[in-house]
Specification:
This protein has 447 residues and is an all-alpha fold. The chain is built from 16 helices and no strands.
Length: 447
């Protein structure tokens, strides 16, 4: 791809399938919330909220299987090394299988630690544990799908990514409605529908990936180049970068976990209200992530092909599009949020609390794009150490802000601290961006 090809239209062409694919992810959370929020009680809604949080920690902790795979794949693709593309996904799939198996083997201590830290009421804890005991069996499938999705993003095959996500979330939503809504299996039905969808999607994704890799097989090496896959130096480099991303993700999840846990300490009604608002925030985040993913692909290719001018064009154009989108999304949350809250629950106390905090949720959406875009830049350029360090700094800032604001303004103070947290994420990466660009510019040309 030439430097002149990096236009806003090119970025939008890459981003729109990702935006649609990502929209299906929080849509699943919205459907789950709507089914339980209207057919169950506050405890059921709290069980779903905490159960989803547990698996955010469990799965997002291994998000490097998606993010790391994207960066390495994009750079190998930009350099025209198709064998390394296949080796990258081979290493990721092996790691996903091993990690998923370990998670199943350690499910009892994981559940014990998670539930002990969350501090929920006994009825909510019982429902959360029922959800966990079923959902954990989808771990190898979910992590394997992460590796496939990372490869598709890194290759710029965003339409295939869209198809995969539609299969996953369409099947998941359908099964959840049947199991929890029609059959009234409640929280257990939500978990079972998700597990079935996860394993079905992995089989579909692997079939799709095989065709994509065959199309790009332009070298004389075997389809699975095992000497490359098992190469120790490349494995160490991959593990080091992935470890940085894992630490970064863990600290990010600690921030969201702290937010949810603080809400839970205010009572079940505030926990449920914050969960509903987080569905709106998450929907906006997934939409903005479309531009971040496009940035990952094009920044990675710029590094791989050796063009700093292309690097700069990607950063500028993608950030402009993301900023405009964040304004539109924040306005949507602010003005249509009351309708969404009404649709998601019929519990009047929960509606009142969520409506009071809605403007703060809209502000969070407005300012969040910078953190997402910088994540995309650093992932594409594999600047993983800076991502790790920034996550530690921003979490520390969030905890300090919470310590100051929560005693003074309760849940409203928690939301203000949450906004400051996403701003701190952007600032802590932004101060490292000039050094990242200089380091990549030293290895590429100006053409």
């Amino acid at each position: 791809m030439e430097t002149g090809d990096v236009t806003r239209r090119r970025i939008a062409d890459l981003a729109w399938p990702i935006v649609l694919a990502n929209a299906a992810v929080p849509l699943l959370g919205l459907v789950d919330t709507a089914v339980i929020g209207n057919l169950g009680g506050i405890a059921d809604l709290g069980g779903i909220a905490l159960g989803a949080l547990v698996f955010s920690f469990v799965y997002w902790s291994f998000g490097f299987l998606r993010m790391g795979t994207t960066g390495f794949t994009a750079q190998a693709s930009g350099a025209g090394d198709t064998a390394e593309v296949r080796a990258t996904v081979g290493r990721a799939l092996l790691l996903a299988a091993a990690t998923g198996t370990v998670l199943i083997a350690l499910q009892l201590p994981i559940a014990w630690v998670a539930l002990g830290l969350l501090g929920a009421t006994p009825d909510v804890e019982t429902l959360t544990r029922a959800y966990f005991d079923i959902r954990i069996w989808g771990a190898p499938a979910t992590l394997g799908t992460f590796a496939v999705l990372g490869t598709l993003v890194g290759l710029g095959r965003t339409r295939q990514l869209l198809v995969t996500q539609v299969v996953l979330n369409g099947l998941n939503i359908g099964l959840d409605v049947v199991f929890a809504g029609v059959l009234r299996w409640g929280v257990e039905g939500i978990a079972l529908g998700t597990v079935i969808a996860e394993w079905t999607t992995l089989a579909f994704a692997l079939f799709l990936l095989r065709d994509v890799l065959r199309d790009t097989h332009a070298d004389d090496e075997p389809f699975w180049p095992w000497p490359r896959i098992l190469d120790r130096s490349k494995a160490r480099h991959t593990i080091g970068a992935n470890a940085d991303i894992m630490v970064r993700t863990l600290f990010l999840l600690m921030g969201f976990g702290w937010f949810t846990n603080q809400g839970a300490r205010f009572g079940t009604e505030i926990l449920a209200a914050n969960h509903i608002l987080l569905q709106l925030v998450t929907m906006s985040a997934y939409l903005l992530d479309g531009f971040a993913h496009a940035t990952e692909v094009l920044v990675g290719r710029a590094v791989g092909v050796g063009r700093i001018a292309m690097f700069d064009q990607v950063v500028r154009a993608a950030t402009e599009l993301a900023a405009l989108t964040s304004v539109l999304l924040a306005a949507t949350v602010l003005f249509l949020g009351p309708l969404a809250i009404t649709a998601l629950t019929d519990l009047d106390p929960v509606r009142a609390i969520a409506t009071e905090c809605l403007p703060l949720a809209a502000i969070y959406v407005l300012v969040s794009f910078a953190a997402f875009q910088l994540d995309g830049i650093f992932i594409g350029a594999t600047g993983t150490r800076d991502m790790r360090n920034a996550s530690v700094i921003s979490l520390a800032g969030f905890l300090v802000a919470s310590w100051i604001l929560v005693p003074r303004a309760a849940n409203l103070g928690l939301w203000v601290a949450f906004i400051l947290y996403v701003v701190a994420r952007a600032l802590s990466l932004g101060v490292r961006y000039p050094k990242l660009r200089r380091s990549r510019a030293g290895a590429v040309t100006t053409g």
